[in-house]
């Protein structure tokens, strides 16, 4: 289900975030006007949902393929061992793994410690995910197919 819905969620992230540059996003992020602030909430939701999909797909793929994963160390995102297992299996590159871990940390910050998140942090995380998500989807789909068919 997540794999089938992934393109729709990615399109929602693009649709919402394409209308802002950093200055416009920062102004909306800090606005007290609900009409200006609401698009920020939609972008944050799309970011969080897409990052959750990536983490869940990494977990499911590592499970299906029987990949070894260590328990997350203290302070590590819960999805980090799954991303590292995919990296070690050749499903994703070392650099993409590093960026996905950073995005997972950003998702936690936005979702759970919002008062510490700055507009620049959120904007940078969204922009990074806009490019990393399609790369993840392409690499993951190519890698997981034989495991699902085999």
Please, could you describe this protein's structure?
- The chain is an all-alpha fold and 150 residues long.
- The protein has one domain (2-149): Four Helix Bundle (Hemerythrin (Met), subunit A), CATH 1.20.120.
- Helix content is 77%, strand content 0%.
- It contains 6 helices and no strands.
- It starts with a helix and ends with a helix.
- The mean pLDDT is 93.
What's the shape? globular
Radius of gyration: 16 Å
Kindly report the average pLDDT value. Answer: 93
Main beta sheet strand tally, sense and closure: none
Q: Write down how many β-strands occur, each being a DSSP E stretch of 2 or more residues.
A: 0
| Helix proportion | over 70%
Topology:
Elements: H1 2-17, H2 22-30, H3 34-64, H4 80-88, H5 94-112, H6 119-149
Helix pairs in contact: 1-3, 1-6, 2-3, 3-4, 3-5, 3-6, 4-5, 5-6
Task: Give me a quick take on this structure.
The protein is about 75% helix and about 0% strand. It is built from 6 helices and no strands.
Which features characterize this protein?
single chain, 150 residues, mainly alpha, Four Helix Bundle (Hemerythrin (Met), subunit A), globular
């Amino acid at each position: 289900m997540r794999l089938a819905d992934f393109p729709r969620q990615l399109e929602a992230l693009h649709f919402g975030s394409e209308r802002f540059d950093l200055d416009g996003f920062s102004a909306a992020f800090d606005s007290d006007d609900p009409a200006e602030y609401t698009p920020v909430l939609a972008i944050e939701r799309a970011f969080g949902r897409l990052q959750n999909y990536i983490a869940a797909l990494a977990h499911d793929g590592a499970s299906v393929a029987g990949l070894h994963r260590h328990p997350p160390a203290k302070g590590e995102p819960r999805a980090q061992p799954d991303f590292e297992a995919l990296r070690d299996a050749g499903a994703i590159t070392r650099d993409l793994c590093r960026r996905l871990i950073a995005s997972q940390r950003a998702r936690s910050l936005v979702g759970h410690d919002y008062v510490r998140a700055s507009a620049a942090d959120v904007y940078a995380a969204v922009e990074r995910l806009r490019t990393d998500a399609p790369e993840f989807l392409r690499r993951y789909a190519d890698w997981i197919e034989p495991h699902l068919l085999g």
